[in-house]
Amino acid sequence: xxxxxxxxxxxxxxxxxxxxxxxxxxxxxxxxxxxxxxxxxxxxxxxxxxxxxxxxxxxxxxxxxxxxxxxxxxxxxxxxxxxxxxxxxxxxxxxxxxxxxxxxxxxxxxxxxxxxxxxxxxxxxxxxxxxxxxxxxxxxxxxxxxxxxxxxxxxxxxxxxxxxxxxxxxxxxxxxxxxxxxxxxxxxxxxxxxxxxxxxxxxxxxxxxxxxxxxxxxxxxxxxxxxxxxxxxxxxxxxxxxxxxxxxxxxxxxxxxxxxxxxxxxxxxxxxxxxxx
Length: 277
Known about the structure:
Layout: H1 9-19, E1 33-39, H2 42-52, H3 65-78, E2 90-98, E3 107-120, E4 123-134, E5 137-149, E6 169-173, H4 177-185, H5 195-199, H6 210-219, E7 229-235, E8 243-252, E9 255-262, E10 268-276
Antiparallel strand pairs: 1-3, 2-5, 2-7, 3-4, 4-5, 6-8, 7-10, 8-9, 9-10
Helix pairs in contact: 1-3, 2-4
């Protein structure tokens, strides 16, 4: 189904909150949402780069096209036939692959769909899949995996936790980063905005967006990345705001492994791997 403009997140998020009381599970919808000839706003790109600490260049960070497809994802996840509520669905992993550098002056055809509903020990998982194409060629591919808790498979998860690496640098994450990232992403999920709204959903304080943590980690590799690569992360424990985090990176198979860790106690926030293509 082709969309003539980007869906309005200001309308969709209130709908998402209300829909949380009516969704009862079921099959995933099979339709795609498509937008064609989508341009990048250089002012918006610059604002995104500042919030995530990327340099200001004519190339898009690999995480930036997620900004273009995210409203389409939210529209799909708030449609009446989507089986799970958006609010309360946990973003547990994200994998992005780009086959070449993407430039600010290009126009992109975007496509979003959902697939791969499967059991998880704590509930059910599904994948939101997004693509960006130029001249019919897919050059960017994004898979966001979400977990909906409840009614899990009952399989036991491994109790073993790998030893966390020693951080190579430390970052302070300000209290307002959730609100700042919400301004550029449109993702105004209440768990990210304020301690009071986060407490309504069981968090002691507001938490950083998972895609901000991924982008911030990726920004630490600028100047060392090839044009074509995949960056795959798993989101672990949330970053409670404000925070001090440790970042650890080491070379691995021609690419990199990295971790974002709580700087005050040995708890993982993000682990990831960058693989050249």
